[in-house]
Structure formats: C-alpha cells, structure tokens
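Shape matters. As here.
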Amino acid sequence: MKPDEIYPFEVVLYPTSNLFTRDHRIRVDVSSSNWPRFDVNPNTGDPPDRGRRFATADNAIYNDAEHSSHIILPIVERGDA
C-alpha cells in the first residue's frame, strides 16, 4: 500500500445473530489489531516471524460523496428464523 492512497476494503464478518429492538443502537469499532487472537502486525512489511521494528498504523474511513462507506445488515423478520 502507498501512503495517502485510498483503498476499498470489504470486510466479511463471522456469522452471528443479535436481536435489536426499536430502542437499540449499533456501534462499529474499527481497529488494525486483534491481539491476542491474531499475531501483532508490525506494519513494516517485515516478515512477521523475523521483524524487530514496529510502526504505528494510521487508519481512516472515508465517508463522503466520492468515497461512500456502508454496512449491510440483513434483516430476518420474526417467525422467519
């Protein structure tokens, strides 16, 4: 990846199920790490098992007319499950 370039991403989540009522709100957290579930990414391009340097990852999500971001949530009506 090149600095200051915008790249499209599609993130496919593991299947899950939640019941949201009318007063619920949904929050989405975006992170570049999931330690200890996955090994730490040094963000340097070095091989993960040999790298000794680490760099901070700067992430941005663009949400404007040119770069729309969205989340698709399927809806299952009651009685259909």
